[in-house]
Amino acid sequence: MLRPMIARRTALLLPLAAPALAQEAPWPSRPITLVGGFPNGSGVDIYQRRLAEPLSRALGQPIVVDNRTGAGGNIGSDLVAKARPDGYTFYFGTAGTHAINASLYRSLPFDVVRDFTPIAHLGDVPNLLTVSADKRPQLSDCAALLAAARANPGRLNFASTGNGASTHLAGAQFVNAAGIEATHIPYRGQPGAQTALLAGDVDFFFNQTGPAIAAMRQGLVRALAVTTAARLPVLPDVPTVAEACNLPGFVSTTWYGLFGPAGLPAPVVARISAEVNALMADAGFRRWLTEDQGITPPPVDTPQGFAEIQRRDIARWAEVVRRSGATVD
User: Fold this and answer.
1) Using one digit for the tens of pLDDT, what is the confidence trace for 91-124?
2) What's the confidence (pLDDT) of residue 131?
3) d(C-alpha 174, C-alpha 244), whole Å
4) What separation, in Å, do the N-terminal and C-terminal C-alpha atoms of the chain show?
5) What ranges in the chain are assigned the alpha helix state H?
6) pLDDT over 70 for what percent of the chain?
């Protein structure tokens, strides 16, 4: 009788053992979702799709890009903040979504620090002050733009990719620093703002370098200045805002970064961080970042180092928001 009893007990335990064995499958064992907060064709979208390809090969699983747009990236952020921390949902964040929005919005349905796991710094991103080459030929340089603004107080306007985006705050900083009046017109993402600029619906646009450089090379826009402290190696003939606009000390740059939900397992964080660092060391990928996107690749860093960058920038951008007077309409 002993053997039948043992057999029955073993059979009863097998269903309980199966889930445990399934949970022990090495990560990742199924497709991964990379959420973005901005529309197709935006600087964020361009980068996250370029990032997904080599990461997918390195991890051995498909990476699906899922853009959840709106509210300055907050809709996508909220989705990831509430996702299971199982290593299958990540967020392509920005200084806008994970530093600026903390002070720009009166309330958020998540905490930009507590509800996320910082994983990797993906590069520093400047903006280019651009005008339409066709619709605004008279705005040949920043001096001409400022002269037009001062001769027509409040009549000029500038586009942004949405309230709270780097394109918004760069414009607000510029208007405040130059002492001019100009109306902010937010669009839902880069494509809409770029279309408005080319159509002549707006006068200027502090666009992200990636899509701005592409438009420059097509002869669609003229770049008057870049928001970095020094000129970009890829655009040596484009002066800084400090130089071109006689605004000493003007700098407005942000960053891209990879986040997961809070509580992400340490081995998953370590693996993704290592793969990103390896990618940033690849000569071809670095060339794409610097020459096509105008992005400065980050140094080899740790998730803890990226977390410190985020904490520092939350305080820094809170002061910028206060001084610029930027608000969510």
Assistant:
1) 999 999 999 999 988 899 999 999 999 999 999 9
2) 98
3) 12
4) 78
5) 2-23, 43-59, 74-81, 95, 101-104, 142-151, 166-178, 190-199, 209-217, 241-244, 266-280, 283-287, 303-324
6) 91
CB distance 32 to 62 below 8 Å: yes
Q: How far apart are CA 42 and CA 33, in angstroms?
A: 18
Distance CA 221, CA 193 (A): 13
pLDDT of 269-300, one tens digit each? 999 999 999 999 999 999 999 999 999 998 87
Which of 202, 226, 203 has the alpha carbon at shortest distance from 213?
226
DSSP state of 136: -
Residue 199: how many CA atoms within 13 Å on its side-chain side?
8
Instruction: Please determine, for residue 313, whether its predicted confidence score (pLDDT) is greater than 90.
Output: yes
Closest CA to 98 of 275, 299, 306: 306
Residue 83 amino acid letter:
A
pLDDT at 11: 46
**Can you tell me the distance from the alpha carbon of 176 to that of 150, in angstroms, rounded to the nearest whole number?**
13
Domain ranges of the chain: 32-124+254-324, 127-244
Is the domain 127-244 a CATH 3.40.50.2000 member?
A: no
The DSSP result for 276-317, as a single string, is HHHHHT-HHHHHIIIIIS-PBPPPS--HHHHHHHHHHHHHHH
32-124+254-324: what fold?
A: D-Maltodextrin-Binding Protein; domain 2 (3.40.190)
Residue 230: CB atoms within 10 Å: 10
Q: In angstroms, what is the C-alpha Rg of the chain?
A: 23
pTM score over 0.90: no
Cβ-contact 185, 159 below 8 angstroms: yes
Q: Mean pLDDT throughout 305-313?
A: 96
User: Residue 53 burial (CB < 10 Å; 0-12/13-18/19+)?
Assistant: exposed
Q: Which tokens is 157 given? A: 């306007």
